[in-house]
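Quick entry between incubations.
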Amino acid sequence: MRHAVSLLALSLLAAPALAADATGLDANDIAAAETLREQALAGSPAWDIVESLTTEVGPRMAGTPADARAVAWAKAKFEALGFDKVYLEPVTFPVWLRHRERAEILAPFPQPLVVTALGGSVGTGEGAIEAEVVAFPDLAALSAAPEGSLRGKIAFISNRMVRFKDGRGYGPAVGARSNGAVEAAKKGAVAVVIRSIGTSSHRFAHTGTMRYVPDVPRIPAAALSNPDADLLVHMLGRGKPVTLRLDIAAETVGEYTSHNVIGEITGRELPGEVVTIGGHLDSWDLGTGALDDGAGVGITMAAGALVGKLGQAPRRTVRVIAYANEEQGLYGGKAYAEARAAAGEIDAHQLGAESDFGAGRVYALRAGVDPAAWPVLEKIGEVLAPLGVATEREGGSPGPDVGPIVAKGAPWAQLAQDGTDYFDYHHTPDDTLDKIDPKALDQQVAAYAVLAYLAAETEVDFGRAPAKAAE
Amino acid sequence: MRHAVSLLALSLLAAPALAADATGLDANDIAAAETLREQALAGSPAWDIVESLTTEVGPRMAGTPADARAVAWAKAKFEALGFDKVYLEPVTFPVWLRHRERAEILAPFPQPLVVTALGGSVGTGEGAIEAEVVAFPDLAALSAAPEGSLRGKIAFISNRMVRFKDGRGYGPAVGARSNGAVEAAKKGAVAVVIRSIGTSSHRFAHTGTMRYVPDVPRIPAAALSNPDADLLVHMLGRGKPVTLRLDIAAETVGEYTSHNVIGEITGRELPGEVVTIGGHLDSWDLGTGALDDGAGVGITMAAGALVGKLGQAPRRTVRVIAYANEEQGLYGGKAYAEARAAAGEIDAHQLGAESDFGAGRVYALRAGVDPAAWPVLEKIGEVLAPLGVATEREGGSPGPDVGPIVAKGAPWAQLAQDGTDYFDYHHTPDDTLDKIDPKALDQQVAAYAVLAYLAAETEVDFGRAPAKAAE
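Done. Structure below.
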């Protein structure tokens, strides 16, 4: 690293100072960004960061003892990486705990099933639930069932998430997870089981949040692995009643205050203006949270650290945020946005991006900014192009934890990742370190370092609330 | 199927009857075998048989209630497939039961681990075992440790099985599973954990048998998934003592008598001479035993059924055997061989083959027969060649349940399967129906039908004990 920095220093001296154009960036800035890119590709600390998080903390579900260990880990890691300023901000949320989960077919062909409770689910009580299964091809079909038609039954939603590079199969499928319990309970069901919202054919059940609404009974909700959902479909195909035993112990117990953990590279000219990158620090309890979202934390910590090791800091501050409790309701992102709004700091946010889609390579840059700032994005895109990243003016969306501050008017960028395999591992025990290709991780660090550095180096304004109101 | 059989009948009428050569097979025989091959490729009942077994029985560990259900299922399936003669033969063995298995790192970084008890292991007792982990790169290193050096410790064997098409990575690795407990106990260890004997990077622990010996303490033995073994290696790499908590409840309880289930296509001229094909009916308890060995049962039942639907039966009897309890010590194969020896029927065995290597395509025919019978094998190989099957005069080995009768002098054949992925699923919860490609299964049915039919149609003798003694 020392050698590369020296090369950069040389290039800063050697390059003629060109006048900045509508991008607010000159040749020195581009040279510095290119150096960051090449440094990251040559080997970034991202994989080591994820290795550290998954080994020394592991699963870190919000509100558990591992949550506090993760916060301490993140603070220490920011400090070790040389960030100028490291601090915590409180995030409060209800605590959900998973104690036990089992399912088995009792009749006509007894078999155990691989199941997991959905986040937020109530338990089945002391005696478990034994009831006949009624299958629906999707949530809409369940919602269309007559009132009372599922009294005493377990509803089963069997539709399968479709695999896409951009993960767009998730949206149409995830309603079964979010709303299945409410829709089933409205019809009188005593529980709901869904085919996992995931693309894997391995025998892992995918957890994830579900919700209840007032005035509808709270019934247990669980997901079967894809092979187990297949098995249940095959068994139901025999035309005989299928009886399932569901035994879930889970509870929501009080509140917990965790923290967003923040590391900054202080801007040299405009320290009050910030560019944020980050990932979420919490994970589900089943895996070690390597992909979701150790990768995002590692990528953005590494990218920020590379920027911090430049000869001089960029004009604006680069803020790396390890968000608390994304999984159970974007609590970290919401708390961050609310704290900024309360402090009158929304306008200080020049651009926000989050890495929360695993460890697949970045293939596109998209953004939600003032059109006057597009030349900057185009220029950033030129530096990203050798990474295989296309600049796309349409589409995209902010990362989940960036959404809340975007809703308050802040501009955003997205470095879209190849998510072809992401939903094979998402929210399962199989989300572990070995699924990460260190070279792919370095490509992402390169992209985030370039984006963060150039967005912080330019003086061009990325747009404020009025420009964003139409979104 | 009816249409194809009619075509076969036509071909039998139309083909000129050629004199049989050293192969004992004429053009009509070859035409019939080719028809069987094409019928199987056009769609065999094998996948439906595996679907039925995995759906209607599922996991069927020897000695559990599901064992009896599997035997009843197999008898009914043979009958439904039109076998001439269906019968059971008793197989007695000790019963091992798995009740509970959990592992977690207690220090320095608390994390749960995915673990499974090895078949035959004792439990850890009421209070579980909490002890420091001492790692060894392989079984030899453990065996070389000084006496008493592991007193009060848990030994961990970290070597990783290597992936090969022919599965030859299994042999060098599996000693850690078979003998790890004995070697660890000799050094004073209180338990042994191994990296799973498997090639998957998914978070499944692979079970499988282990053994104890007299005069060495019986200590619990368990396997970690590959990602969990990686995690433990990473954690040990920190240089701090690692404490593991292992909680296994398992026991060996008395004896059980299950059955080999046998279906026959009675030979038209030499019914007392038999060609056997088969798979094993039992599975481990973790998966549904689709690949291990539902596939072998389905392939060979389907192949036998196709032979049975020919216009006339082959000269010799084709016997399809669904062996009991292969997994815990080849009990079915041993009982079969002993019963034949007791009845003086070893010499009646003209060729034995077993499908027990998953559902990958067959790529080679190998055999252990009298050299005088090689022209028959070569001729069979010609009919198999369009399936992508090469005839190999060297190498190979009989299937596990055929081994005991081969040891008593019977000749054998092997239809070697592509096992590249087999050890990803072997002995894990992930051994489920969706891992089977129905078209690949049909290719294997084609190969087994051709082999069984032609070996039963020829009058050439495949060799007896004297010819086999050198093996």
